[in-house]
Structures
1.
Amino acid sequence: MNISVFSSNKEVSARAAELIAELLREKPDAVLGLATGDTPIGVYEALVERFKRGEVSFRQASAFNLDEYAGLPPEHEQSYAAYMAKHLLNEIDLPLDRAYIPNGLAADLEAESKAYDRLLEQAGQLDLQLLGIGHNGHIGFNEPGPHLHAGTHVVALTEETRDANSRYFDHLEDVPSQAVTMGVGWMMKAKHVVLIARGEGKAAVVKEALFGPITTSCPGSLLQLHPRLTVLLDEGAARDVQGLPGVRYL
Ligand code: GLP
């Protein structure tokens, strides 16, 4: 595990974007695993800037998003489909038929999950999985609990997660109670996982996930077992890991 701390979130985003751009230069048809939430927005901004400068192309790449809320149409501004369109997909040259996001509107979400797994299997291994982490340690929407799933599945969102994500909705009741998420198996099989976190609000969970016990009570802790995990933090998110093994300040 390699943990880099940057003095600002802008630098975290720039470094994550650089890793993705480097991968696409080496392997133009790379399979990317993409995340949503506030944290990756700066990464996508930096990638769009690089694309506009002609430094990176996604033309041959494909991308799989981690998750989608159940019941939100892609036109709903809080759907992850809308998020991806706004922050990345409408701005770059990645063919939309190779930008996969689970369909939260599918009548049969179990069947949708299986279909998503088949698409992932066909694509082979994810070359790079970009990840954020929830305050309760969730990755994608794999919530803490007695067990985790390897494959894509339907998940009931915890009240903590609904509450955290209610900032994007008018009312807490508007936050969907279910989602479809890629399972932790796909993340663990990715060739490279890039975990990003920013702000002191994430400091405790960053320490717990990276230095605490490996437990399904903190899904992010599984990442300690990943053979190639790059962690990019700003100083706030790194507050509780200063001086711990593998943490370097850039
Ligand atoms: C969301 C997403 C996760 C994301 C997390 C943290 O619910 N499903 O993929 O990592 O919560 O989001 P943020 O970056 O906004 O803190």
2.
Amino acid sequence: MLSPLTFSVLRLLGDGEFHSGEDMARALNTKRANVWHALKNAEQTGVTLFRVRGRGYCLAGPIDWLNRDVVMSALGDCVFRLRILDSVDSTNEWVMRHAREGAHTGLVAAAEWQREGRGRLGRAWHSALGGAITFSVLWRFPEGAGSLAGLSLAVSVAVARALARAGVRKVSLKWPNDVLWRHRKLAGTLIEISGDALGPTTAVIGIGVNVKLDPRTKAAIDQAACDLAETGCAASRSDVLAHLLAELAQILPAFSACGFAPFAAEWQRLHAYHEKNVTLKMPDGANVAGKIAGTAGDGSLMLKTRSGMRRFYGGEISLRRA
Ligand code: BTN
């Protein structure tokens, strides 16, 4: 855990300029030794800190902090209630905790720094302070989990639309939930569902978008990854978060009313592997090879295999180009 003082120090340094320990202590009304300890801890967030004798401390680059007012004023009247957290284990975990305590549809938690981000298939989601957009949305559905099979695909369509609005060209998708740019992963979705088989169901929709990958974070990611900076997108994290929430505000009620079917054609157009030969890795380790024929209205992937057309549902399956 990092102390609030560490974040206050990082906010001072976030302008990208040099600040002496003494000036920071004075500005924060604390002792120099406390600032020194805060600085020692700051590197845990993944930021790179420089110290130059006679000039003080400086970050490798400015921090693009989230700004709640910017996000909410871009959204106008909407269902979302946004909390911005300095540091959290996982925004999915935070929202799940609040859901268990009775929070309503529309609760959103976004983090400046997520310490233990979770990905699909038990993987970790790596990000540094200010280097990603990491947030989770609580949405309650009257139906059972069975009718939510296409939800992560519909959410990926929302992410692709939002990134297009932020100026990112040529975003594509990879079944079931990756968002790609030039065939490298730019964003991902992890949806965690709880509730009764026949409904109602609580979904925590977690989205992570790489904004600026520092070398340490990039090295920790075990697949080809890219970030918004590479795409040439100059929008702030707050602006991109606002676009993402605006698209989710459209897509989630529409999914609740009609399921995935209205998004199936758009999803297929965005699919980087449509009509390509792929291998699906099943949860038991078996591989199934075939050619992608499309996605059905229930969100299942249709694969032409040697034994005929088969359908697969997201969950624990991963897809690779053959
Ligand atoms: C994946 O592609 O494997 C899914 C990545 C999902 C990451 C996001 S970041 C915000 C939310 N909180 C988490 O712990 N995970 C999701």
